[in-house]
Amino acid sequence: QTGSANTNPSDSADDEYITNVSIGTPAQVLPLDFDTGSSDLWVFSSETPKSSASGHVTYSPSKSSTAKKLSGASWSITYGDHSSSSGDVYTDKVTVGGFSVSSQAVESATKVSTQFVQDTVISGLLGLGFDVGNTVKPRAQKTWFSNAANSLAQPLFTADLKHQQTGSYNFGFIDTTLAKGPIGYTPADGSEGYWGFTATGYSVGGAKLNRNSITGIADTGTTLLLLDDDVVNAYYNNVESAQYDDSQQGVVFDCSEDLPSFSFGVGGTTITIPGSLINLTPVSDGSSTCFGGLQSSADIGINIFGDVALKAALVVFDLGNERLGWAQK
Ligand SMILES: CC1CCN(C(=N)N)CC1
Ligand SMILES: CC1CCN(C(=N)N)CC1
Questions:
Q1: Whose CA is nearest to atom 2 of ligand 1?
Q2: pLDDT confidence of residue 247
Q3: Fewer CB within 10 Å: N-end or C-end of the chain?
Q4: What is the separation, in whole angstroms, between the first and last Cα of the chain?
Q5: pLDDT of the residue at 184
């Protein structure tokens, strides 16, 4: 068995990617942010304060004949951007791209932080990280993919995120026609709950790859490519107008700049992010100053290959073989 779901950028800056998920009986369809950097499936619900839920699609377990309260269970999560949410837990049927898990832990939000209240294009997150990262207490719950894995044709999923176009999350199969190049595989480290891996080197503007390895995570839930300062500086030293903008909390440059590409080696292949994908968006509507898609990871303490990097590739998240596959597209 397999599943295939379309995913769409949330706005003109590809800030997030939105995927519709069916929960309960009859189906309640919620737009969720699929996040390989976390391991909770949580939703805005009938239990979310009305003022916070305004503008969001919500899940009502009381309207689902297959919903069951998971007695005594609670959850609480804080994300990299200091956003947070918490609540209680139900189990219900959850269908993604036509594949159903009959008893999935659906974490209902009784509290959400302002970032989520304001982010009305999503009704929650679907974590695609490793189960060790799940926050439900007293007993951690499995992710939707973990529950699905044994019934899928292959215990893997792929992410095909695109710039300002519809992409896909495929479950149980690899559609190699989505890629231009071969798939390079490298071991994945799931011990922290993320999809950790090591790139063997990098280069700017099509130069030969160096041998400075970069260890980080493949993260669909982070917008940017966040790397060490020495890598960030090596890149922006090639961008004449680049400067750090305190108010923007990042490197900005003239939108008219012709940005160099950024390449990294992984699994014996090379992934090249075209410069166009690194020109993310004007700092404000109509501004001629643009915000960089490559920024520093210094204050996070972990390198993150977020959507800016993922948009250049077809990425295989292979749980069965504990490996990540990257193919140029
Ligand atoms: C290490 C951090 C990466 C960003 N996050 C995420 N995608 N959920 C939070 C954890
Ligand atoms: C990984 C998550 C970070 C927090 N999010 C947000 N503020 N909209 C969603 C993605």
A1: 80
A2: 97
A3: N
A4: 26
A5: 99
pLDDT of 223 over the 90 cut: yes
**Distance (Å, whole) CA 75 – CA 137:** 6
Reply yes or no on whether the pLDDT at 239 is more than 90. yes
Give the phi and the psi of residue 66 in degrees, each rounded to 5: -105, 0
- Mention every residue, 6+ apart, whose C-beta is less than 8 A from residue 178: 158, 160, 168, 314, 329
Separation of CA 117 and ligand 2 centre (Å): 11
Ligand 1 site-directed mutation target among 75, 130, 194, most atoms within 8 Å of CB: 194
Nearest ligand atom owner, CA of 85: 2
Looking up tokens 């750090």, which residue turns up? 244
- Here the tokens at position 106 are 């659906």
238 C-alpha vs ligand 2 centroid, how far in Å? 31
Ligand that lies nearest to the alpha carbon of residue 39, given by its number in the listed order: 1
Measure 125 CA to ligand 1 centroid, in angstroms: 12
Record the tokens describing residue 268, joined without a space.
């014996």
276 three-state secondary structure: helix
- Which residue is catalytic, options 14, 88, 119, 219? 219
- Across all residues in the chain, what is the average pLDDT? 98
Query: 189 catalytic, yes or no?
Result: no
Other Cβ atoms closer than 10 A to 80: 15
Rounded to whole angstroms, the Cα distance separating 152 from 275 reads 37
Please compute, for residue 1, the number of CA atoms within 13 A of its CA located in the half-sphere on the CB side.
Answer: 14
pTM beyond 0.95 = yes
What Rg, from alpha-carbon coordinates, does the chain have? 20
Cα–Cα dist 158/241, whole Å = 37
